[in-house]
Each structure stands twice: as structure tokens, then as C-alpha cells.
Specification:
The complex is a heterodimer of chains A (299) and B (301). Chain A is α+β, with helices and mostly antiparallel strands and 299 residues long. Chain A has 8 helices and 15 strands. Chain A starts with a strand and ends in a 13-residue tail after the last strand. By secondary structure, chain B is of the alpha+beta class. In chain B, 26% of the residues lie in helices and 26% in strands. The chains are: A alpha+beta (299), B alpha+beta (301).
């Protein structure tokens, strides 16, 4: 059985067959998956019967695991999974559906905005790997947008205008957009909301392709008045997420999807989360380094 | 030569020729324009060199003029048109001093940037605007299109289940919310009453055509009875649906274009231009809407 990749759209996404990821991989397979990621930015694997241990073991093939920011921002008794496993579900720590006004539920609604994972960290994420354990009957798609194609499609004036722009990212900005306020995180987590700087245009370390580094976590552009920055980022985001650049993934149980946060944005779509269970688990690989110089924070 | 309306988009928007709107109109011309508005929702009148007074007079054919909120809230020295509060200043000029452009951090510029979000004019009032009329005096060399989206087509394209679920929903609109979205805080000390959220139905029926449409606007900050983040995420999804490319017309301005739209059936937004270098001077008049009131009992639920 050999691994094969079939393109899913003109720009982004490949569907992989002929490989069982739950078993130890050869170096050749790891290299083939990385090459596929560099080309397609998103890879879809079906029928991968992961548990948390096998998912984490598979993930470690591609770099250092990142601790989930959702777990970091939760008290121990609120956690359902281990720290390296981001809990992308509508269940609480006792496996019950979250209620309409549950703080975690309202926070998670921010994932319905286009974003790049962990862009609010000075060293942001490389790959995210999302495994579907339980999927709802309807809705709950994840959409991916190709930030390389989005960059390429800009006119030259805009490319020049944005070449050196530095943006400021914080989880608080994306949540504020939907009215989940800074205070709602709880006093002990305020430090984690401190903004970090990122380049608006970044270059992929392997392919050398440029891409737009956009995310709902962006709150401003350094040196710009805030409203002007936000209006501009909205325009860029709309351009970057136009249909041509988007692949919509409709989940089946045991799908694993890997995406490169350096070259894509993604978002969750709505589903009936008060009645249907959706249990997805995400492992995340840390990136190689910062995209911009940080300002020194006073201790 | 009689009035003629030619469609310029598959769903809505008509271009009107064969009429001089700088002069008083006959009753049948007014009726023809109103019928055109019911059908097309947006009408474009090219080559109409209107003065301010002529624009106000033309507007008054269709109802009662509304004063602009920005005018009401502005300091007198910042108003370009003095006491003429029914004339909206859609320009990047620095108040009475017409030789200067607004500076990059001018608060009026910041306030106006929110016009780049999809909205329906004056939806933050208990009775939102009916028609808005925008006349182009000076246009920049590049950019600054105004885009319109057909909220009737957006409604029609929803599946039956969604239509039924939207029918009872009441949204809350405030100018504070649209400005907040781009990080601009509207100060409320003097204007608290004008900033208070007002309720509107999400699905409205046009009083004349009988067609249903989505009454969406960037001024929406909440849905009554919903947690705020859920309401905002949902309104964003609906807005994205409602402003998909098929439902949108982009107007490229020429000097002396007058564009007239019905805020009950379309949303619109401004787009970017080089406003620190190029002058853009458009003037807006609008009419109070009818048929948009939410009964008090329902709003109080």
C-alpha cells in the first residue's frame, strides 16, 4: 500500500490515502507528509482510529508539542484532557454538554472567526492536527483558506504597502469582537492576553512562498490608528477568505486533518451544540521562531 | 423624453435616465421613481448637477427628511453645512475649512471608518431610515466604491428552517456597537439617549412590495434572549451570507451621480481610498422610514 494525495481544490487541501497514522511511521512517510503539507497546506486523512496517546505519538514526528492555550487558561478541575491536547468539544470536564451561557462555550464561539492557531504567541504554531472522535449530525464544518494564494492575488501596490507591516495579536481581541470581554477570562489569566507582534507577510521556511499572516487575534497594526488598522485587516481578511481560496471540510468520525498555521487560516462553522455532541481533539506543533521582534515587557 | 429605468444587475439596481431631478418633479415622475425603488431597491441617476437645496427639495418628494446623527453630535465648528443638519457630510474635508483634509487621527475620520462595515442607515434609531440619497460632488481618482447588497435576495436564499427560526428574532442596534467593532469608542456623556440600543425585527416586510428582507446592520450588538457572543457570531454568519458576491453591486462614482437606496431592503458600505491625499465630497440626505417599528410589547419581552 502506498501513500497517495489527491488535490481537493485548485489551491488548497489534499486527501491522503494508503497510510495508517496510528502506527509508527518510517522517516520516508514523515518526509512525504511534510512535502504534502508544503504543497497543499491542508491534508485530510480518513479512518484514523486515534486515541490521545497514539495521536500525540504521531504528532511528535513533526516537532515539539505545544501546550494547549485553552488548557493553560483553565483551572485543573475544568480540564477534560491532558495539557498537550486541545479540547475542541462542547463537553465539560464531566463529559456533559455545556449550557447556553457557559463561559467556555461562549469563548469557543470565537473559533468561528477566521484565525491562525496560537498567533497570539510570540512563537506561533506550525501544524495543528485535529482528530474527529464524535461528530454532530449536521453542521460543524471546518473551513480553511489559503494565505499563499491570497497573498499572490494582491495587486502590486498592496503588496508594497503591507510588506513591512507588523501586527499585534491577542486572544482578547478575537473574543472582544463577539463581545466576550477581557474580564470574562478570570483575573488569573490576564497576563496571557498580553499582545505579541507578528509580521503581516511571512515567508515559508521550506517553500520560500510568501503568505498573508492574518488572524482574528489581530487588534492593530503598529503605527496605525486602531480603527484604520481594524478596517484594513477586515478588508484583507475578506479578500483572503474569498471562495476560491477556501476548502470546507465536512467531518466524518476518525478523520484527521492537519493544517499549516503559517500558510492558512481556518474557522469552525455553527452546529447544534446544545443538543449534538462534537468531540474533536487537537495536537499542535510549535513553530520554529518568531515572525517579528517583540518589544521588551517590563517585569 | 420620459423617465426610463434600465437594470444594471441581475437582482436589483436600476439606472434612471430621461429626467432632470434638479427641477421640481411632476407627481407621476415621483410615482415612477417610487415604483422603481420598490422594484430595484437602488436607483442611480447619472449627470445630475444638484445644489444642496435642490438635493433637499428632490428628497422631500418622498417623505420627511431626517437629521444626521453625526451632525447632531458634532460641535458647530466641525459642521460644514452650518445649521443644515439634514445634509450629511460624507467627505474627508476638515469642517468649515474646505482647503484641508482631515488628519490621520482625526476622530471624525475614525468615526467614519465604520462606514466600511455593512450597514443600514440609522438602524440605531427606533425608526430606521427609509431612503438615503447620496450625491457625488468630488470623487477620488481610485477606490471609494459604495457597495450595495440585496437583503430581499439574501432572505429568499435562506432555507425554510432558517427562515422560520429568524422570524421571531428581535435584534438590538446602537451606533456604539458598529464603532466598537473597529476599536472606536463613541463617548456617551452628552449623547446617552441617542446611543441607547433600539430593538428591530430581524425579518421585515416591505410596506409596499410585501417582500421580506433581512434587516441586518453593523449596528446590531445583540439578539434579545441570546448570550451576546452567540448573537454576534450568528449575525456575522448571516451578514456573510447576505453580502455574498451574487447579491452585491459595487457603484463606481462619477461626479454628479445621485444614488438613492432603500435601507429597508439593502445594506451598503463604503470601500477604501487614499483619503489622506484625495478629496472625496459626497452629500447625503435621508428619509425617515416607515414600517420598521417593533411593537413595544414585543420589544419589552
Amino acid at each position: 500500500m502506498t501513500m497517495e494525495i489527491r488535490p481537493l481544490t485548485r489551491f488548497i487541501g489534499g486527501e491522503v490515502s494508503g497510510i495508517d497514522l496510528t502506527r509508527p511511521l518510517s522517516n520516508g512517510h514523515v518526509a512525504a507528509i511534510e512535502a504534502g503539507m508544503d504543497r497543499f497546506a491542508v491534508l485530510v486523512f480518513h479512518d484514523q482510529h486515534f486515541d490521545d496517546e497514539t495521536q500525540l505519538a504521531f504528532s511528535r514526528n513533526f516537532g515539539e508539542l505545544e501546550v494547549s492555550s485553552g488548557a493553560e487558561m483553565s483551572r485543573p478541575e475544568e480540564r477534560r484532557l491532558k495539557m498537550e491536547m486541545a479540547d475542541i468539544s462542547n463537553l465539560d470536564s464531566r463529559n456533559r454538554l455545556r449550557r447556553p451561557d457557559d463561559r467556555k462555550r461562549l469563548n469557543a464561539l470565537g473559533n468561528q472567526l477566521w484565525h491562525s492557531d496560537a498567533s497570539f504567541r510570540a512563537i506561533p504554531a506550525k501544524y495543528s492536527m485535529l482528530s474527529a472522535r464524535i461528530v454532530p449530525a449536521r453542521g460543524g464544518n471546518t473551513e480553511f483558506a489559503d494565505m499563499r494564494a491570497a497573498y499572490d492575488a494582491l495587486d502590486d501596490d498592496t503588496k508594497t504597502e503591507i510588506a513591512d507591516l507588523i501586527t499585534e495579536h491577542s486572544n482578547a481581541y478575537s473574543r472582544e469582537t463577539i463581545g466576550f470581554m477581557r474580564d470574562d477570562y478570570g483575573q488569573e489569566f490576564q497576563d496571557r492576553l498580553r499582545p505579541v507582534r507578528q509580521s503581516l507577510v511571512r515567508t515559508h521556511p521550506v517553500t520560500g512562498r510568501r503568505s498573508l499572516y492574518l488572524s482574528a487575534h489581530i487588534g492593530t497594526i503598529i503605527g496605525w490608528p486602531v480603527p484604520e488598522a481594524r478596517a484594513f485587516i477586515r478588508d484583507l481578511t475578506e479578500h483572503a477568505t474569498q471562495r476560491e481560496f477556501v476548502y470546507a471540510h465536512q467531518w466524518k468520525q476518525w478523520d484527521l486533518v492537519i493544517w499549516d498555521n503559517r500558510t492558512t487560516m481556518h474557522r469552525a462553522r455553527r452546529y447544534n451544540d446544545l443538543t449534538d455532541i462534537r468531540d474533536m481533539r487537537r495536537s499542535t506543533i510549535r513553530g520554529d521562531g518568531p515572525t517579528a521582534e517583540q518589544i521588551q515587557q517590563a517585569a | 423624453m420620459g423617465i426610463e429605468i434600465r437594470p444594471v444587475h441581475p437582482l436589483f439596481v436600476g439606472e434612471v435616465t430621461g429626467i432632470d431631478i434638479t427641477r421640481p418633479l411632476f407627481a407621476d415622475d415621483v410615482a415612477a421613481i417610487e415604483a422603481g425603488m420598490d422594484q430595484y431597491a437602488v436607483l442611480v441617476f447619472p449627470d445630475q448637477p444638484l445644489t444642496d437645496d435642490q438635493q433637499c427639495a428632490f428628497t422631500a418628494n418622498f417623505g420627511e427628511l431626517e437629521v444626521t446623527l453625526a451632525g447632531q453630535m458634532a460641535k458647530p465648528e466641525h459642521r460644514r453645512f452650518g445649521d443644515k443638519l439634514e445634509l450629511g457630510d460624507i467627505s474627508n474635508l476638515d469642517g468649515a475649512n474646505e482647503s484641508r483634509l482631515r488628519a490621520r487621527d482625526d476622530s471624525r475620520r475614525m468615526y467614519a471608518l465604520a462606514n466600511r462595515l455593512w450597514h443600514s442607515d440609522a438602524s440605531f434609531r427606533a425608526v430606521g431610515a427609509g431612503y438615503t440619497l447620496l450625491h457625488a460632488r468630488i470623487v477620488p481618482s481610485k477606490g471609494a466604491d459604495t457597495q450595495f447588497a440585496d437583503m430581499r435576495a439574501a432572505y429568499d436564499a435562506l432555507d425554510d428552517e432558517t427562515k422560520a427560526s429568524l422570524e421571531p428574532l428581535i435584534t438590538e442596534h446602537s451606533i456604539i456597537h458598529s464603532r466598537e467593532q473597529i476599536g472606536f469608542e463613541v463617548r456617551s456623556d452628552e449623547n446617552a439617549d441617542r446611543l441607547k440600543p433600539v430593538p428591530h425585527r430581524l425579518v421585515i416586510t416591505h410596506p409596499k412590495s410585501g417582500r421580506k428582507s433581512l434587516y441586518l446592520s453593523s449596528h446590531i450588538g445583540a439578539i434579545q434572549g441570546w448570550p451576546v457572543p452567540e448573537a454576534r457570531a450568528f449575525i456575522r454568519d448571516l451578514t456573510e451570507h447576505a453580502t455574498q458576491p451574487e447579491f452585491v453591486y459595487a457603484h463606481k462614482w462619477k461626479v454628479n451621480d445621485l444614488v438613492m437606496w432603500d435601507n429597508r431592503t439593502v445594506m451598503h458600505r463604503a470601500t477604501r481610498f487614499n483619503d489622506l491625499k484625495d478629496v472625496r465630497d459626497l452629500r447625503r440626505t435621508s428619509l425617515k422610514g416607515v414600517g420598521l417599528e417593533v411593537p413595544h410589547a414585543m420589544a419589552a419581552e
